[in-house]
Amino acid sequence: MYDFEFLKPASLDDAVAALAEEGAQALAGGQTLIPTLKARLAMPSALISLDGVEELRGICSDDQGRICIGAMTTHGAIARAMSGKVAGVAHLAGEIGDPAVRNRGTIGGSLANNDPAACWPAAALACGATIRTNVREIEAGDFFDGMFTTALDEGELIVEVKFPVPELSAYGKFEQPASRFALVGVFVAKFGDGVRVAVTGASEEGVFPWREAEAALGAEFGIEALEGMSPGAEGLLGDIHGTPEYRAHLVGVMTRRAVAACA
Question: Which residues contact 197 (CB under 8 A, 6 or more apart)?
């Protein structure tokens, strides 16, 4: 590690003001940032802990029936609160990492980091979530800009994530056993006006919608509609854990498992 200033503001306004200083970096759950600091892949001059900002925690519903989750709400808290309400979100949150990660990591930190193998981007994209920041609201489809890149401007903080509630939802995850990140993860959400399918872990550009599967499931919601289907391997990740072709195959498998889980 190295010397840096550590600040723990008690309000959102104070946090935003602290982040306006040159070299400041927000610290949410720290499950990605702390290892990054240890490896000196990032060297901010000040860490602004959001742990003391209570207005960033909690889960409620708005007047549109959406579930609103504060950015500093942990994966574990979401898994417990969503059990019996939104099955796909509850299952996804409950399968992230291990108990230590689930009780420290936060939904806001995960979305802001936008790791290409993170689980939350798939849920946000498939559900058509809205990410509310301290200055604006961003639709999930406009939020993710590629690997580790989002639409957030410098100093902009996620305040809460608003999830429309699907009729049916499920998350199929084939995890990399060492990291427990998704080698391939697929979130399926069925709404009255159609079906959305979002894939994480597979693409060089991060989370993406699988449009062909959405069209097939919109016409007939069942695993039979996906028989023999998988996306093309072009643009998919290839590494020691699997070739692009292997990941393409897994996308089809995990999508069918997610659809089966919806039933």
Answer: 126, 186, 187, 188, 209, 210, 213, 214, 217, 255
Q: What is the pLDDT of residue 84?
A: 87
In a domain, 33, yes or no: yes
pLDDT tens by residue, 3-37: 889 999 999 999 999 999 999 999 999 988 888 88
Full domain range(s) for residue 188 = 168-262
Determine the 3-state secondary structure of 106 from DSSP: strand
Distance between alpha carbon 252 and the CA centroid of its chain, in Å? 20
CATH no. for residue 228? Answer: 3.30.390.50
**Domain membership flag for residue 96:** no
Q: Report if pTM > 0.85.
A: yes
Query: What is d(CA 9, CA 18) in angstroms, rounded to the nearest whole number?
Result: 8
